[in-house]
TrEMBL record:
Transmembrane segments: none annotated. Its cofactor is Zn(2+). This is Peptidase M13. Residues 538-741 form the Peptidase M13 C-terminal domain. It comes from the Bacteria. InterPro entries: MetalloPept_cat_dom_sf, Peptidase_M13, Peptidase_M13_C, Peptidase_M13_dom_2, Peptidase_M13_N. Belongs to the peptidase M13 family.
Amino acid sequence: MLPPAISSGTGPIPTARISCRARPRALRARTCPRRSALKKTLLSVATLLALAAAAPLAAHEDRACLDDACTLQSLFAEADAGGAAAAGTTIAARRFGSWGIDTAGMDRQARPGTDFFRYVSGTWADTTQIPADRSSYGGFAILRDLSEARLRVLVEGYALGDPATGGDAAKIAALYRGFMDEATIEALGAKPLQPVLADIRAATDRNALARLMGRRGNFYDTFFNLGVSDDQKDPDRYTLYLSQGGLGLGDREMYLRENFAPQRERYQAYIVQMLQLAGWDRPQENAKAILALETRIAEAHWTRAESRNRDKTYNPLAMAEFATKSPGFPWADFFTAAGVEGAGRAVIRQDSAIPKIAAIFADTDIATLQAWQAFHATDNAAPLLSKDFSVAQYEFRDKFLSGQPQQRERWKRGVAFAESAMGEAIGRDYVKLYFPPEAKAKMDALVANVKAAMGARLDTLAWMSPATKAEAHAKLAGFGLKIGHPDTYRDYSALVVKNGDLFGNAQRAGQFEWDFRRARIGQPVDKGEWGMTPQTVNAYYNSVKNEIVFPAAILQPPFFDPDADPAVNYGAIGGVIGHEIIHGFDDQGRKSDGQGVLRDWWTAEDAAKFEVQAAKLGAQYEAYEFPQLPGMRINGRVAMGENIGDLGGLTIALEAYHRSLDGKPAPVIDGFTGDQRFFMGWGQVWRTLWRDDALRQQLVNGTHSPGHIRAFAPLRNIDAWYDAFGVKPGDALYIAPQDRVRIW
């Protein structure tokens, strides 16, 4: 029997902690999870390249796929920097102990084989409070707080001038200060939203409603999400993707499972509240109809497990065929309003769901469709409106759904808003202050060692045939690497920003982002583009580019400390590097080859052997219980890629660490052996605490196992962990050697 689950653990921390609804619709792709596209992150971190309506984001929510094709999988001429950047004001990162581990945070009374999370982080867990404005807290959140504080100094240091002539700094200043001008926002009340609502009232037929769904930058929502990303079967060109949408609760399970009845009841009350604030007629009646509509859509949706299956989610369809293949929805109006009518085709992710949702649109009365759009537009815009709107949204989406007691301070939301619109411009100045060249050099060496270890592991795999090994080696050899920041940053010169026009700035930023993306359809892929900003605390693997990417902000303690013990660095950032490499060989990443092309390069026999081990790993994770949440379990199929990434990543990182010793014995530090410090480095990364409501949301909506599970679960399948800590039969975490999962 495993130890009782601790109410802790996390997935990715959002790059910017402001409700996704506060971000211009097209910009949510840079910082938010997609409502219906599966997302993947190293942590528990739409392309930054995809552009579609996003789900409401609570602090805990998982981001798994960063683009509409589910190919970016994460764990996240220069203008004058001005202000703080010019002044050189910096905020230092905190170090963890003298050699990389916070030994004071350990619980040395805990047995590693009984509860490894407590052994590494028990005292920290006992003495740490989740901040009132967070629903979870841990290593990722701590680094995000650091990044956020640094960005505040930068953003508040930009001088307010004329955005038309003052370059990026003046535009960022206008975005941030417009968000911080509470007096003006309160005085305006709901006035900025009225033109949006007027357009909805004027949309009295299905064609007009479809056109609203296609428009960008005006907070409208859609049943069908559009995005632009690298073509999975032609990685040198961009293509248009289309996926299921329409759900305000984020996932079909929230509508269909009986144990989420309280969430549905509260959601209906929230819909009433938002419609009342918007001045929409018959709020009670319409709220009931909206929930019923979304429940029908949820029934049509693919599950998260189905939506991450790349064998099923690449379905190109000529735009002229949508009307016959999915009748009932005015596709021509929709595509024209989105400005993609010339794309020729779209790749459908959930092909059997789209006709059903189109039929639901055709079968729903106009008044309900208008009310649905009015609610979602109001919900999308709420953080940019007066407190009655923004507080109402916080009370439901953050406090009720995720248990977050306090709304985030306004400056934090303001930084996030500016970041969502001009993240790379801010990132350029962040890099000048916080990413020294020597950090990149040490990371280059670490990646090279972990990559070499992966090659060595491939050679030793008894279950894999020579033919598949040859393809795997070719893929590994072609792995690209991006560390720290892009070589070329986004050009924001065409973005129109005005002082004192918060709502208009959000609309124009959304349109600017979408115009940038849609203009690329059919064009050559920008191989140098990044899917995350430098200040993002995350990392990702992009299967279409076959590359791993590590933004500057994650290259700090507890993940990476150039002055820490190498064993700790290999267990922490080395495990992360390995995790991202393994994403190229996990249950979905293995379906793309070394050129990024979606194709099956495995022999049938090897694939079958892989699936047996993957299923065995999934069963391990599904066995973990959460006593504070009866009936809730990890979905082994949904979290499969991340769990494989953790196990394989640690396996090759450990081999890389051993190779780095050049045959010499590892030193003993403070009584800990090299292997012990390696595994402690991994466990420390996953020191996290959760509020129960947020953990529930993670288990339903997330693609990552909770952090306290990740701290020990992969170790149970690694023989060296047993040897390092003397784990024996009878210990709670013990797995017999013949039952341990061995993939990579």
